[in-house]
TrEMBL record, chains A, B:
<dbReference type="InterPro" id="IPR012878">
    <property type="entry name" value="Beta-AFase-like_GH127_cat"/>
</dbReference>
<feature type="domain" description="Non-reducing end beta-L-arabinofuranosidase-like GH127 catalytic">
    <location>
        <begin position="8"/>
        <end position="417"/>
    </location>
</feature>
<dbReference type="Pfam" id="PF20736">
    <property type="entry name" value="Glyco_hydro127M"/>
</dbReference>
<dbReference type="InterPro" id="IPR049049">
    <property type="entry name" value="Beta-AFase-like_GH127_C"/>
</dbReference>
<dbReference type="GO" id="GO:0016787">
    <property type="term" value="F:hydrolase activity"/>
</dbReference>
<protein>
    <submittedName>
        <fullName>Glycoside hydrolase family 127 protein</fullName>
    </submittedName>
</protein>
<dbReference type="InterPro" id="IPR008928">
    <property type="entry name" value="6-hairpin_glycosidase_sf"/>
</dbReference>
<dbReference type="InterPro" id="IPR049174">
    <property type="entry name" value="Beta-AFase-like"/>
</dbReference>
<keyword id="KW-0378">Hydrolase</keyword>
<dbReference type="Pfam" id="PF07944">
    <property type="entry name" value="Beta-AFase-like_GH127_cat"/>
</dbReference>
<feature type="domain" description="Non-reducing end beta-L-arabinofuranosidase-like GH127 middle">
    <location>
        <begin position="429"/>
        <end position="528"/>
    </location>
</feature>
<dbReference type="Pfam" id="PF20737">
    <property type="entry name" value="Glyco_hydro127C"/>
</dbReference>
<dbReference type="InterPro" id="IPR049046">
    <property type="entry name" value="Beta-AFase-like_GH127_middle"/>
</dbReference>
<feature type="domain" description="Non-reducing end beta-L-arabinofuranosidase-like GH127 C-terminal">
    <location>
        <begin position="533"/>
        <end position="644"/>
    </location>
</feature>
Amino acid sequence: MRITSASIQDTFWQNYIDLVRQTVIPYQWEALNDRIEGAEPSHAIRNFRIAAGLEEGEFGGWIFQDSDLYKWLEAVSYSLRNHPDSDLETIADGAIDLIGQAQHENGYLNTYFTTKEPGKQWTNLYEAHELYCAGHLIEAAVAYYRATGKRKLLDIACRFTDLIASMFGTEPNQIRGYCGHQEIELALIKLYGITGEERYLNLSRYFIDERGSKPNYFMEEWERRGRTTIWAQGTPNLEVYQCHLPVREQTVAVGHSVRAVYMYTAMADLARLTGDVKLREACERLWANTTLKQMYITGGIGATHLGEAFTFDYDLPNDTVYAETCASIGLIFWARRMLQLEAKGDYADVMERALYNNVLGSMSTDGKHFFYVNPLEVWPEASMKNPDKHHVKPVRQKWFGCSCCPPNVARLLSSLNDYIYDVSDDGKTVHTHLYIGSDLRFETAGCMVTLKQRSELPWGGRVEFTASLSGKADRAAFALALRVPGWIQSGSPALKVNGEIQNYRVESGYAVIDRVWSDGDTLEWLLPLETMLVEAHPLIRANAGKTAIQRGPLVYCVEEADCGVPLAMLSLAEDPKLSEHPHPDLLGGCVVVEGEGIAIDISAWSEIQPYRPRQKQGVPARIKAIPYFLWGNRQPGEMSVWLRD
Amino acid sequence: MRITSASIQDTFWQNYIDLVRQTVIPYQWEALNDRIEGAEPSHAIRNFRIAAGLEEGEFGGWIFQDSDLYKWLEAVSYSLRNHPDSDLETIADGAIDLIGQAQHENGYLNTYFTTKEPGKQWTNLYEAHELYCAGHLIEAAVAYYRATGKRKLLDIACRFTDLIASMFGTEPNQIRGYCGHQEIELALIKLYGITGEERYLNLSRYFIDERGSKPNYFMEEWERRGRTTIWAQGTPNLEVYQCHLPVREQTVAVGHSVRAVYMYTAMADLARLTGDVKLREACERLWANTTLKQMYITGGIGATHLGEAFTFDYDLPNDTVYAETCASIGLIFWARRMLQLEAKGDYADVMERALYNNVLGSMSTDGKHFFYVNPLEVWPEASMKNPDKHHVKPVRQKWFGCSCCPPNVARLLSSLNDYIYDVSDDGKTVHTHLYIGSDLRFETAGCMVTLKQRSELPWGGRVEFTASLSGKADRAAFALALRVPGWIQSGSPALKVNGEIQNYRVESGYAVIDRVWSDGDTLEWLLPLETMLVEAHPLIRANAGKTAIQRGPLVYCVEEADCGVPLAMLSLAEDPKLSEHPHPDLLGGCVVVEGEGIAIDISAWSEIQPYRPRQKQGVPARIKAIPYFLWGNRQPGEMSVWLRD
């Protein structure tokens, strides 16, 4: 694909991107420096200072704590690209200098093993996250180079990667292992992309190809360590780490969900870059399994907190759910790569679903509080008093000892401009995956095109594109492929070109408008944005007899603040007569959906009867639903996505 | 209360009692002797042999393993009382001799501390179960003495108890503690009952009164142990052990559910024997909380497996449930004592509910397999593949490392004759709590009365009583108080005396028939046994929009074997037109309930849609429900008590 640049110009998203830039990034910098009062210290910067010999002390935080600084630097890079900020860049340069000081002569870089277990490097790939941290270093380095043109972090990353490349592989003197937490695989693809060095592509391919081969590396490593582990008990669990089978033989998403989707992301990249058909088929199989059988309506994945893992097909409990923020971010990474492999609307539908619901909902409207777990049903008293639900928090948390999610949100939202379009190598086809207001610049046949997208989403369905041409030609021939969203319930989007209705053909979920564009051409794309009642596949036991409300890409939910409790008493009327109401003052502005419901008549119950002959007494009730991504921003209370029929 | 004797003559129950006598007791003896192939060894007998110096080796099993032998002896005692068996008695005598050999000079008796941690006695009341094991020794001793008249085990128990009484109390040289697992409190009441020794009553009262006083004994003990524990981590959890407050101030059932109900049982005994009003009020408060807000429709209690504990009011999830067998047995113990405190139909209703559903369902029809956890909803694949449900087994297990439940079932079922009647001290009132065929013998004003009860329950509603008089008088005046079951949906039981319909008055849930009885008088008590649809209190979120089927005391469920899967696809028709069908060949004979339902039309779904616009397409389906207590006796499959409306 051709390198293009898009910049976001969108009221809805600009809010979030500004929040990341103005609040999340500075707040996280304070956190990395242990300066947030009342929060667990991160230790991240201090670990680097100790490793660099600038400070005495002991390593603190998780074994993979370095990755927090790298993820922050990656988010900073994206932010700088869109919004230059010399003060922030100076801080980042300082952090990069510190990283350089912590790097060994031979390129090795990991503060845990440098300060706490020197000599034990590469002895516990199963748990110790060394290659994982290297992967985040690489991602940060690539992003920082792209944003600033500065090579220092990229050189640090390349030196470390070259060491890794010399140590890992199938040669007799090499370690024939791979990381317990996939990440470096996808990072190496990025490093290959920016440097053009085939050895980075090959190293990624080695890690992917080697995974799951027999005899199993983690089993042998565990034996060599005298069967000791850091956290895990007993024999290594190969399914949790997706190395139970060679990746090309995997058919079902299993194990730790973040590890899984990070791996699938790299697999999709490799399938595209190498034309590996078996790998591509594995990606398609795993995609189908994940998104058709193991995905919540919010785009959440991972049904259990034990192991933060996938369970099995159609097991999607709403209340004991995990649906980790990072897992949905990883799903978005993967969807993005699948789109590069093949422009299919389905991939973008899932990407949009996870983005607008699970991921957006994970951050509070103040940008300082985050959900790890994104439940579809919350009973705050159960979260407190039933230990099976302790992991489900009714309010977003300030900062975490294991702080993977907030920096991941930051790096996704600040690079959102990379998720909207794909322009083909010849500049002749522009796929629009997401309807996010933005200016895309690309070149086609010597003509510089600026395509302005303006979108009312998620509140309205009107999208407008305007083409501005510059350069020697005053006309440009290219096809604009516009995604036909999967959430359209009835009808199809109307298309107007320069005010006139036009027909269009649909290919793989995209409306293709193939024409010769003139400067100032305007295209209107009118998406029918209806409120829709949704039912789940009957094999998803948890949603039997239940209905969700969706409007455009937004999944809705009911909250105690609007509907009282228990929410379970409420059901939808046979014809709920849903209506839409814009509330500019509610939760920063949103469209509320209201309708008719029935509530169990609790006044007809006495406390002396836990069970009684069925009477099915209902009283009319009003249902008021808000977008899921805004839940939990008022008083803590019950919340539910699924309503009884 | 007057000591009376009832012997069961009942086809339905005799099956179970025979199963206990012929299968469970011999099988458990083999298990105690580690002779069950393929099962985890119990170590119980071996531990006693090691403690007695008859064998070399190391203690095995749980720290409270001794109690397994005691509970077995208690079950054997009840069995011998009803069904003398000299071979079994010889085996029991041998076991008792062994117990005697393991007892210390000073009366101390516990094989764990004798063999594994000598010198550490009484240093970890919080976890080590020493007084708990003593309690089970006492219960076995009382039962064996009552059954056989042999004093040996009773003497062993009294010697140990006298040691405990000298060591525990409020005197300066005494340990001011109590057991982490309540049990001895209720056992001491029994010992007082058989010996008449006030010091045993006082010791029980001391344990109950001291519990929850400040400063907390377990906190101090934990500090003395250098903050070490065996299993529990961190600070002692006082709520789990019900010592967060003095018992008279407790209002809500909290913590480990078996510990809780064992304690409440002793509290009810003490309230009755001492006339302690505050204690009685505490019992009544805790009873109301437990049975109105924290009890499953099956009589199960304890909503979470983490801590095997109560959670909070109305939190009764059907699928992640615990509802341990032992907890329902403890609830039956407690109900029995509440009935002795005050004959109220509500207590017997709960007793009957727990007995016919949770407890009876815990044992397989072969008497060799048991449930610990008694779920109300099972999805076998989730039990295997979702770790949040690993504790929920879709099939009964053979024997357990921690084998509390099977011996508890055995001792309850073989003493079931003690749960049917209460005869007042003056012999003038006979309360019938349970409709279980049985012969009750009691004396009133010099007349020996044999009251024969014959009952069709649980399959039919007809109950018949016949009085036989012997002795000097040929007439006897006494009131027969017959419980009016809470499960009667409409109408009231018809009463016939010698074939003629009679009116009666109802007091506290009992129909009182006060008359002068002649030899041969017959009373018919005709309970309207209808199949009933039941709804749960709206605050029980898990059952919102759901209905259960109950017929008489039996809760029903649907199983995959009859209804296919997923069961969640099934809902009851608006009018399900339920009908009853006796199936003499199904699961040992039962009445099946059938009706009309609606199933989601899965044929209208394609796999490529996990979610779609709601269509609510249903197809007619047949519902076939079986008694809950018989679930899981066919191929492993889905099961559900609650059906969608």
